Amino acid sequence: MPAPENVSGYLHIAATYSIDLTIVGPEAPLVAGVVDVFQRASRKIIGPTRAAARLEASKLFAKKFFARAGIPTARARESWNEFAFPVVIKADGLAAGKGVVIAQNRIEAERAIEQLGPHVVIEEFLEGEEVSFIALSNGEMILPFAPTQDHKRIFDGDRGPNTGGMGAYCDPRILTSQESGDIMERIMLPAIRQMRKEGNPFTGFLYAGLMMTTEGPKVLEFNVRLGDPETQALMHNFRGDFAEVLTLTEAGPETVYPQSWADCSLCVVLAAQGYPERPRVGDLITGIAEAEAAGAIAFHAGTVKRNGELLTNGGRVLGVTSGGETLQEAINNAYKAVGKIHFDGMQYRKDIGQKGLRRW
Q: Residue 71: is its pLDDT beyond 70?
C-alpha cells in the first residue's frame, strides 16, 4: 500500500482496479488531501477535504472553530497555571489517539509539554461520562449512528497511558433520545452549518468525542473518520444495507435513511507486549478460527502473514468483536472468544463494557 501521504498512489489503485467507491479509514491520508485528489479525478470517495480535515489535524484550529460555531467545549488557556489540577494537555497535530495527557500536578504537566512538543492545547478537566457520537454527512444533512463508548487507557479501571483505544461497546442505553437530540442540535448540526458557511462543506464521517457533563454535552475532540475500535462495534451491530447508507453523500437534504441496530455489541482490543510505548512484533498468533467459530469476528489491525503463519505486526493487533441481546451477553460472548486466542505478550483490558453494567 502507498504511504499515507502518497495520495496519488491511492488514486492509482482506485483507477487500476476500477474501484466504484473509496472509504477513507485512517486520518493521515485525509489530512494529506486524498479526497481533494479523488474529487479532481471525478472518482467517488467518502471523507472530508484537506481543509475540512483540519478539525482533526489541528487541535488549535478545532478549538477556534468550536468558538465560531458556538459549540460547547472545555475552556482552554495559554498556560496550565490558569487551571486547578488536573489539567488536560493535547498535542496540536495528529498523534494516533495518544496525544493527550491528563496531568495531575505541575511535574506531570511539565513532563507532558516536553513530551508533546511546544504546540499544545491546555484545557480544563471535564467530569462526566464519555461518549463517542459518529454521524455521516453529505455537507448539508447529517445521519447519526448509534452511540458507543471507547476505553482509551491501557489498563483496567482507566489506568495507565492513553492508547488509540483498547475496546468499545455499542448500547442504545448509552444516551437517552433527549440527549441524542441535544447533541445533534448543539454540536453536530452547528458543525456542519459552520463548515458550509466557511466554504468547506464537511462530507464523510464526523466523530464527536463527548463528555456528558452536568451542564450538558461538551466536545473533547472531533475526528473526521470512523473511530477505531468504535467502528467494529458499530458495524457488528448494524442490520441492513450499509452501502445504501453510504449513498447519503450523493443524496439530497430531504433524504431519510432508516437504520436498524442490534441490541448490543462489544469489541475487545488485543495489544502487543510493550504497547503503547514500544510494541513488540513477530509473535505467533493462534486461535482465531476457534474464536470466530464461537460467533465472534476478529478484525485484523496489526497482523502479517509470513511463511503460512500469522504474526503480530503492530501495537493493536486484533479487535475481537461479538454481540448479544443484552450488554452482559455481548461481554460474555466477546471475552469467551478472546480466551481462545493467544500470542506471547498479549495484553487486553478485562473490563470493557463494565461501566455500562454499573450504570444500568
A: yes
Grid cell, residue 90, equals: 493535547
Q: From CA 52, how far away is CA 199, in angstroms rounded?
A: 9
Please give the CATH number for the structural domain made up of 75-124: 3.30.1490.20
The one-letter amino acid code at 307 reads N
All three cell numbers of 157, joined, read 479501571
Residue 125 carries which DSSP code?
P
Cβ atoms of 263 and 325 within 8 Å: the answer is yes
pTM: 0.89
Give, to the nearest 10 degrees, the angle between helix 189-197 and helix 59-69. 100
**For 146-188, how does the pLDDT look when each residue is reduced to its tens digit (9 = 90+)?**
999 999 999 999 999 889 899 999 998 999 999 999 999 999 9
The average pLDDT across 282-296 equals 96
How many Cβ atoms are within 10 Å of 263's Cβ, its own excluded? 16
Residues 32 and 19: their CA atoms lie apart, in Å, by 20
Q: Where are the domains of the chain?
A: 7-46, 75-124, 127-261, 264-359
What CATH architecture applies to the domain 7-46?
3-Layer(aba) Sandwich (3.40)
Q: How far is CA 308 from CA 220, 283, 284, 286, 297, in A?
A: 43, 13, 11, 12, 21
331-357 residue pLDDT tens: 999 999 999 999 999 999 999 999 888
Residue 108, pLDDT score:
85
Interatomic CA distance for residues 50 and 44, integer angstroms? 16
Specify whether the CB–CB gap between 328 and 346 falls below 8 A: no
